């Protein structure tokens, strides 16, 4: 009789564990579906772009996300808790990570384990030339250079050196302090990143860019979740939008020079470029975008053939028709040998997005 009771107890325990596992899966799937539905409600005319869809948090709507958000809110984050969360959430909470042009030995050696050292790290990263988001752009060109059959040299053929990470679950993103230099110590603690490390310098660069004031007539945001990106895009350009992305860029950085042949291109109308949102992929432990609403642009779609392997990159470019509001030291002016105010174009990397009103 006792053996039967023991067997029944074991069977009950196994069933309970199976049910709990099933519940976890259902909750996780439900959370992801909720995020997708929120996105589609705000932007019903567009399918979720692949670069966003593959970055959805695997912990959306789970107890794990709720628990970590509570810890962040109350400031009771332990290293072991963060390490476990980062692994489960698909984040990169690695201190020794080298991603050009974010890090250099000069920038890292300037940082020490004090609050003043954090400011030094930020100053060092800015001294490397990162003053605006466009300082990450290398592939500037003039509209007149778009000639079928012509060629251009691109840095890494629009390959994105930033490794893939997931967005934060919405509840965790909502619990984070704002991305400012003043909040950098708490952000470092949240992701268990030591001061003076390479990732600390990367994060200081990201928060510096995100807290920088917008240009006149421009709006900016740094979404840390797919929900916050949908909110920003819909608030700036409406709900009927189209997402344009560069596809076909190499998965690994090509070595040496990277020339491409211009097979074909299409210039979208100036009217379409009156109000667009450009979202640039920024390095951070979680997926982070720097989005800005810009006006007076022309969007270009082009087919570029790589000389190395004849692969075709379906690329997106932005031509800014008036650069008079840009800083005089903007890299485009030196790269193109043009005065401030002149038209300047640049290509969009493979994980960036351009949101335009639907035709």
Automatic annotation (TrEMBL):
InterPro entries: BURP_dom, PG-associated_BURP. Keywords: Glycoprotein, Signal. Residues 1-28 form the signal peptide. Transmembrane segments: none annotated. Residues 140-358 form the BURP domain. Pfam families: BURP. This is BURP domain-containing protein.
């Amino acid at each position: 009789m006792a053996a039967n009771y023991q067997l029944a107890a074991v069977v009950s325990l196994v069933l309970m564990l199976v049910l709990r596992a099933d519940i976890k899966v259902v909750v996780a799937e439900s959370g992801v579906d909720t995020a997708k539905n929120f996105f589609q409600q705000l932007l019903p005319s567009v399918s979720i772009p692949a670069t966003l869809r593959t970055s959805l948090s695997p912990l959306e709507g789970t107890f794990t996300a709720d628990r970590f958000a509570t810890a962040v809110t109350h400031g009771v984050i332990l290293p072991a808790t963060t390490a476990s969360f980062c692994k489960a959430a698909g984040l990169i909470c690695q201190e020794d990570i080298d991603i050009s042009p974010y890090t250099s030995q000069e920038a890292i050696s300037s940082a020490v384990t004090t609050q003043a050292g954090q400011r030094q790290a930020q100053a060092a990263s800015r001294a490397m030339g990162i003053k605006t988001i466009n300082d990450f752009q290398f592939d500037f060109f003039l509209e007149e250079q778009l000639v079928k059959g012509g060629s251009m040299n691109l840095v890494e053929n629009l390959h994105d050196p930033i490794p893939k990470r997931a967005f934060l679950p919405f509840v965790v993103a909502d619990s984070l302090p704002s991305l400012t230099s003043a909040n950098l110590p708490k952000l470092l603690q949240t992701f268990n990143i030591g001061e003076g490390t390479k990732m600390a310098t990367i994060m200081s660069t990201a928060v510096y860019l995100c807290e920088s004031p917008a240009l006149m007539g421009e709006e900016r945001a740094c979404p840390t979740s797919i929900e916050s990106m949908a909110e920003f895009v819909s608030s700036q350009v409406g709900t009927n939008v189209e997402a344009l992305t560069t596809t076909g860029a190499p998965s690994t950085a090509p070595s040496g020079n990277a020339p491409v042949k211009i097979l074909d291109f299409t210039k979208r109308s100036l009217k379409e470029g009156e109000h667009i949102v450009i979202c640039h992929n920024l390095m951070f432990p979680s997926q982070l975008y720097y989005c800005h609403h810009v006006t007076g642009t022309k969007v270009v779609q082009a087919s570029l053939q790589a000389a190395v392997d004849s692969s075709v990159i379906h690329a997106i470019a932005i031509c800014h028709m008036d650069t008079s509001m840009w800083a005089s030291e903007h890299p485009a002016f030196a790269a193109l040998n043009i005065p401030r105010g002149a038209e300047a174009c640049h290509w969009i990397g493979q994980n960036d997005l351009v949101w335009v009103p639907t035709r």
